[in-house]
Design brief:
Distance between the termini: 127 Å
Largest sheet: 9 strands, mixed
Mean pLDDT: 77
Low-confidence stretches: 34-135
Number of helices: 7
Number of strands: 16
């Protein structure tokens, strides 16, 4: 055997080892690249799906604020320290009944906001400090209020009105609240049709004021009470509240609010978007489900311009029922649509009360309502202000209603 023949197997062995190393390296490289590509593919697919979901949500949802993800509310003790997270609907276990009113803890929540139509109609110079002077800051309040807590502990059995008044020190006479560190983006009138439900009114003010203060809106609560014991006309009282509120200040947003509904989430912003908003979407009495698509009762929000456009509420609905559906018809007849927050945010608890006597003619009035849209409402509203008082937590109006003449 020659030397060359003896060396050849040695070279072949090393060549095989080298080839094996190259193959292994290629396999490892392929595996590495495959992992990176798979990860990028997954990320790409996730991004595409998320984008499609967001677009579909925006396309199919009502215009307004959309909030994603759960939120919890910390239970806050009297000294302001958060003790534990809770989503309970009662604070009866608090050491002091007034402790619930001092809840100001801020829990970060993920909120996506659509621009409200009222943002360009504000007068920054109208922002007031607590003592009535101009706010020290000229910067507008953030689009998303920073101190929202999400789900709220609703106080259905509040302390006496005098206790509530002493606790809510930030509220100015007449039931007005306004942020002090920034210029508010919204001027909101809360109009409450009312008669003979003082305990409900106390609970309403106890729950609503702290929430509105956190939402950083310039607001004022108007309680419009119907004089006498005749049939109640909720719609007409709301028309009166609209007119009387504008005599005080140029509000750009109106929230028409039943006194027996208490909000359960402060992400349900009391502002007016580009379309009329039905706010009490999910009420505990109805198992937190919307009874029917065109519902506009309970709590609703309309801009000053839209309310004037539809000529306000009808004045012919004496007794319970019908005026909400008539307003829904007016909204649609004027090319507008009803917007809503998600049901997990627009939640309310209803206080128990005796049901009002139903209006036997409500269906007849609904059927013929279109004929009266232009003449029945703000256009033929007649009333007399019997008494007006600026109480600590609300502006009270006692009014005598005059039934409109048949058109």
């Amino acid at each position: 055997m020659t030397v060359a023949a003896a060396v050849a197997p040695w070279h072949r062995a090393h060549l095989y080892k080298a080839l094996a190393c190259v193959v292994l390296a290629l396999i490892a490289l392929q595996y590495l690249l495959s992992g990176i590509l798979d990860r990028r593919s997954i990320e790409t697919i996730f991004t595409i799906n998320a984008t499609r979901y967001a677009r579909n949500s925006l396309r199919n949802r009502p215009r307004g604020l959309i909030i994603y993800g759960p939120a919890t509310s910390p239970s806050v003790l009297a000294n302001g320290s958060a003790s534990s997270y809770t989503t309970s609907s009662s604070v009866s276990g608090a050491r002091n009944p007034g402790d619930a009113l001092r809840t100001q803890a801020a829990v970060p929540t993920r909120v996506a906001v659509e621009r409200d139509a009222s943002l360009d109609t504000e007068d920054p110079s109208d922002a007031l400090h607590k003592n009535g002077t101009e706010a020290p800051s000229t910067e507008r309040c953030p689009l998303v209020p920073p101190n929202l807590v999400g789900p709220l502990a609703v106080e259905k059995s509040p302390p006496a009105m005098s206790v509530v008044e002493k606790t809510l020190t930030e509220v100015m006479p007449g039931g007005r609240g306004c942020p002090t560190g920034c210029v508010p983006r919204h001027r909101v009138a809360i109009v409450v049709p009312y008669r003979d439900r003082f305990q409900h009114l106390t609970a309403f003010l106890c729950n609503l004021h702290p929430m509105l203060l956190r939402q950083q809106v310039d607001y004022q609560i108007f309680v419009v009470e119907q004089e006498g014991m005749g049939q109640f006309n909720r719609a007409m009282l709301m028309n009166v509240g609209y007119v009387e509120a504008l005599k005080e200040r140029p509000f750009d947003c109106f929230i028409f609010h039943d006194v027996d509904l208490l909000p359960e989430d402060d992400r349900n912003l009391y502002t007016c978007p580009e379309q009329p908003r039905h706010m009490s979407v999910a009420v505990d009495k109805f198992n937190y489900r919307l009874p029917y698509a065109d519902l506009f009762g309970g709590v609703s929000a309309m801009s000053r311009e839209h309310f004037r456009l539809v000529n306000g509420f009808s004045n012919v609905f004496w007794g319970w029922g019908g005026e909400d559906d008539d307003m829904a018809n007016r909204i649609k007849a004027h090319g507008l649509h009803i917007s809503r927050y998600p049901a997990n945010v627009a939640r309310y608890k209803m206080l128990t009360h005796k049901k009002e006597k139903a209006n036997p003619k409500r269906y007849e009035f609904l059927k013929t309502g279109k004929k009266r849209f232009a003449t029945d409402g703000l256009a033929n509203l007649q009333y007399q202000v019997v008494e007006k008082q600026r109480k600590k937590l609300y502006t009270w109006l006692l009014v005598k209603l005059t039934p409109p003449q048949p058109s």
